[in-house]
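@channel sequence for tomorrow's demo:
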Amino acid sequence: MKIIVNSLDLNDAVAKVSKALPNRDVAPVLECIKITAEHDRLTLYATDKDLAIEKTIDANVIVGGGILVPGKIFGEYIRNIADNGIDISLENTDENKLFISSANSECTIGTLDIMEYPEAESINGASYFAVQEMNLKDIINNVIFAVATDDSRPMLKGVHFEAQQYTLSAVATDGYRFAMSKKALEEKVDGISATIPARSLSELSKLLTDSDNILKVFIENNYLTVAMENTKLYTRLLGGQYIKYDNIVPKEFLSTLVVNKETFERALNTASIMSRTDKNNLVVFDIEEYSMTISSTSQYGSAKENINISLSGKDVRCSYNSRFINDCLKVISAETIKMEFAQHNSCVITIYDSDEVLYFILPVKQIV
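C-alpha cells (generated this afternoon):
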C-alpha cells in the first residue's frame, strides 16, 4: 500500500475512529486502526467489539491495500505532524512496517496482520427509522445525561429508543430522575425499539451535525448502525427488557409554576454555589404565588436568590439536587418552562406549551 493524503483530513479521521478503541487492555489487534486504500479513497476503522466507527476520506492511492497500525501511537504521531494541510505519505513495506513521511518528518511503525482483525458486523437494513440529523443529535443530548453510571442495573446505562408511526421517543433514568424527549420521524414506522449504550450515543452525538440531512438508523441482530456522510457508526445494543416507565411520571399535580428559563437557570446556578461541595448539591425552593426563593447552605456560608414566577395551586417548599435540575435546563432552548409538583414534592419540568422534552425529578428530602 502506498498513498498520499492531506494531513488535516487524516488527523480528523484518526481522531474520530480512535473513539472506538478499547479503554482497557485487550487483544493487540483491537488496539489497532484498520486502514484500507482503494479507488482514491482511504478508509479507517476501529472497534472494541461493542462500538465501531468507520471514516472515509479522499486520498491519492498509488498502490492499494490494507494494514493494521497501533491506534494510539499512530494517532498521536499524526496529530503532531498535521500542519496547515501538508501532504503525508503512507507506505507499508514487506517487513510489516508502515513508513510515514512528510516535508519535515518521517517515522516507521510496526504493523499487524490484517487477516487477524475481526470482521465488521453486517446489517442488511431490514428495520430502520429515518430522522433528520439535527433531530437525532438533539434527542440524544436531551436525555443522555440522565442514564445510570453504576453497574447495578446494566440496562439503565443506555438510552431506550422507540419509533412508532411518525414519532421517535427516547428515555433515560438513573433511578433518581427520568428524562424523555420526542422528535418527528420522516417516514412512518410500525414499531421499532432498542436500548443503546450511553457511550455509543455520546460518540454518535459528536459525529452528528446540525444539518437537516435525513439519516437512516438500522437495527438488526442486536446491532445498530448509522450512516452519515463519509462516516459510519456501529454499536452493539443492550440486551434485555428495559424498565416499564409508563407509570413513573405523575399524572396529577398540586401546583404548577411557569417561569422564564434563563432567569431561573441563572438564579439556580448562583444560589447553588454554596452547596456544590455537598454530594447532594442541595437547594431549597420556597414558592409562593408570584415569587420563588432559591437558597443553599453549607459550612462555607449561605446564598439566596429571589425571582418572579407565576404559580397556580398550593405554595411549595421542597429541596432538590441542583445538578439534576441544571442538567435539564442546559439542554432546554425554550424561553419559558413549566414546573409541576405532585405529592411528596416530586417535580416534572417541561417546555411551556410543548411535549418535546419531559424531566421528572425526585426531591432529596421532605422539608418540614
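heads up for whoever presents: The radius of gyration is 25 Å.
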